[in-house]
Amino acid sequence: GLASSQYNIATMYEDGIGVEPDKVRAYMYYQLAIEGGFPKFATEALEGLAAEMSPVEIKEATKMARAFVPQTREESAEEMKITAEALEGPAEAAQ
Question: Domain locations in the chain?
Fold first, then answer.
């Protein structure tokens, strides 16, 4: 739910840094960043990205942004724990 983090995630999806490139998700996160109070860079990025997208993609991204519900700290911590355990593998997790 942090606007600056949503901007950073948007750039990752737009450029495919650490994730598969996804214009729709990038647009959604730029929208969330703007709505969350981080408009300076996100607005410019959103406008540039919109020029590369179809109206259908923009509509889908807007729907996703409206439906977005940020995780609580507890949910986020649990997800990180599960991810770390999965990356460690069964042998290392047992130690």
Answer: 3-70
What is the reported pTM? 0.78
Spatial distance between the Cα atoms of 92 and 95, rounded to a whole number of angstroms: 5
Q: How far apart are CA 6 and CA 31, in angstroms?
A: 9
pLDDT tens digits for range 1-28: 789 999 999 999 999 999 999 999 999 9
Cβ-proximal residues to 26 (8 Å cutoff; 6+ apart), any chain: 10, 11, 13, 14, 49
Digit-coded pLDDT (tens) for 24-44: 999 999 999 999 999 999 999
Residue in this structure with the two tokens 């997800």, named with its chain if needed = 79
Dihedral sign from CA coordinates of 5, 10, 16, 22: positive
Backbone angles phi, psi at 91, to 5 degrees: -70, -45
